[in-house]
Amino acid sequence: MTSSSKTPNQYQPTSTPAWKTLEQQAKKAEQQNISAFFDQNPQRSSQMSVQSGELFLDYSKNLVSDETWQALLELAAQSPLEQHRAAMFSGEKINTTEGRAVLHGALRAEIGDQTIASAAAESDQRVSLVKQQLADVELVSAKIRSGQWLGSTGKAITDVINIGIGGSDLGPKLACSALQEFAHPDIKLHFISNVDGAEILTTLKKLNPETTLVALASKTFTTHETLLNAKTARNWFAETLGLENAQSSSHFVGLTANRANALAYGIPADQILEFAEWVGGRYSLWSSIGLSIAISIGFEKFVEMLAGAREMDLHFQRAPLAENMPVIMALLGIWYSNFLDAQSNAVIPYCERLLLLPSYLQQLDMESNGKSTTLDGESIDYQTGAILWGQTGTNGQHAFFQLLHQGTRMVPIDFVAAAVDNLSNEEHHRVLLGNMLAQASALMCGQEAPEGEAYRYYPGNKPSNVLLLDQLSPKNFGALIALYEHKVFVQGSIWNINSFDQWGVELGKKMANQLLASDSDVQAELDPSTTALFAHIKQCQK
Ligand code: F6P
After folding, report:
1. Is 509 one of the annotated active-site residues of the chain?
2. DSSP H or E run through 487
3. Among the options 28, 509, 525, 536, which is catalytic?
4. What is the pLDDT of residues 150-185, one digit of tens each?
5. Which distant-in-sequence residues (6+ apart) come within 8 Å of 231 by Cβ?
6. Of 398, 510, 538, 542, catalytic
7. CB within 8 A of 261, min separation 6: which ones?
8. Three-state SS across 76-117?
9. Quick one: pLDDT at residue 6?
10. Beta bridge partners of 49
11. Which of 95, 102, 163, 165 for mutating ligand 1's site (highest number of atoms within 8 Å of CB)?
């Protein structure tokens, strides 16, 4: 920790010397050009790239001069980041509004990883608890994969439906899609999250109830979308197999941090796979919430995914700030958002199996850092979490890239790709990666317009990172997700916010309950526009 680091309650990012320097640098940046930085420094691309395991980040194509970069590193050093990071990994209750520790790192840690002597014994105990919980994931996934887990009519499982939402859906769904190269050939995974009945009813129609297992995934076991979908699945088992209380049969398992609620719901005790309350919902794919991943790719590969995340955890904890991949990505995001007024950033994987990465990152980033109150309860007068969006390339090239090249907004981009792809062939992969590199280069270099054809002008100077995985293996996928988790953490630390609560989702939930209440007095409390819309829908439905 640097001597200028401060505890959160003394800290205001905008009062640090580095923040003031960066405000000055932002004025200079208006005149700067990324391509010119390369002319001034031929070593720029090697100096502005970093490797961790099999992940390689080139961040040289950013609108960041050497001076700016030094000031950004100073900003990190002058913030409570390093202290906050140690507090997170050692199990302090840094989620202050919910009074909870934030220990998804413990889900992939090994005994002895904790370097803070006073926290070592407790950390090792936690790792042992996690290993016990993961042993249940291993047992259940192995039984299902080997055909030993039987439905109520004695048949092996062919289809698993993960019913969950938010963190209890997005992580497992992304991982199963990303790692489909390793998927079990005879067991299909389905993910039901939305309360839109068309989703679950259409899925159920295609399935055989005798060979279907529901993995009911909910940290709290109270989420109304998940419970309604589970009810529909139970009714389906009752109607098709005459199975009353299917939730208590071998067709259901519960994945939760709330054992009591799962038991009360009727899930048999030995079919509840638990995880600890100190795992945040959007950080839970590494826990028993990842059962569907283990069923799909096998427990051994699931463990490789955890090992990749651990490798990134160790990198994040040990690498100096200037060589620390999550810190670098976080600082670049802060530069654009707080100093150059970028409103959003795009994540564009050149890999169709990472199609769901932007949706996953939307929850991770925007639910974590979409905050406007400091850790000390003060209102914030600077920007926090940026809007994150994206989709795969090359598809995006034929959709929104026009705006990226010639629009008026600055959108910093993360390009993500695997250097080698065993599921593709040489020709396809060369074209895919060639397109990604060409786009990143064109965005930076731009092009003059021919005389009288201003519409052909490409201004260039558009920043991007290129993040390359050697290949899309379970280990590298784990490292990739942990990288973004830590990037979000670094930004939250510098912005002095609690990245681990999500109070902003509560009001909408409460009002949905109000609106759906049959009690007309309760409905009368709604605003006039909502009342009129509700009445219109009722009229249409008559
Ligand atoms: O949207 C709020 C939220 O609490 C998320 O953070 C969480 O991932 C999701 O709901 C689902 O919650 P649960 O796993 O408890 O059903």
Report:
1. yes
2. helix 474-495
3. 509
4. 999 999 999 999 999 999 999 999 999 999 999 999
5. none
6. 398
7. 220, 221, 222
8. HHHCCHHHHHHHHHCCCCCECCCCECCCHHHHHCCCCCCCCH
9. 46
10. 58
11. 165
**Residue with CA nearest ligand 1 atom 8:** 167
Tell me which of 169, 279, 361, 502 to substitute to probe ligand 1's pocket, judged by most ligand atoms within 8 Å of the beta carbon. 502
* Tokens at 85, concatenated: 């990071």
- The closest of 306, 309, 288 to 139, measured between CA atoms, is 288
Residues with CB under 6 A from ligand 1: 164-168, 218-220, 223, 226, 281-282, 367, 502, 505
How many whole angstroms separate alpha carbon 71 and alpha carbon 65? 10
* Domain at 8-102+319-447+455-497: CATH architecture: 3-Layer(aba) Sandwich (3.40)
Distances in whole angstroms, Cα of residue 538 to Cα of each of 119, 194, 365, 534: 58, 22, 37, 6
Spatial distance between the Cα atoms of 478 and 316, rounded to a whole number of angstroms:
14
> Closest ligand 1 atom to the C-alpha of 256?
14
| Residue 1 in this model has a pLDDT that exceeds 70 | no
Residue 425 phi, psi (nearest 5): -125, 175
CATH topology agreement for domains 8-102+319-447+455-497 and 117-302:
yes
Question: Amino acid letter at 257?
Answer: A
**Beta partners for residue 51, in sequence order:** 56
Backbone angles phi, psi at 433, to 5 degrees: -70, -35
For the chain, which residues make up each domain, given as ranges? 8-102+319-447+455-497, 117-302, 504-541
Residues 471-515 have pLDDT tens digits of 999 999 999 999 999 999 999 999 999 999 999 999 988 888 888
368 Cα: distance to centroid of ligand 1 (angstroms): 12
Instruction: Specify the fold of 117-302.
Output: Rossmann fold (3.40.50)
Which phi and psi (to 5°) does residue 39 adopt? -65, -40
Q: Is 367 among the catalytic positions?
A: yes
> What are φ and ψ of residue 265, in 5° steps?
-70, -20
Q: What is the pTM of this model?
A: 0.96
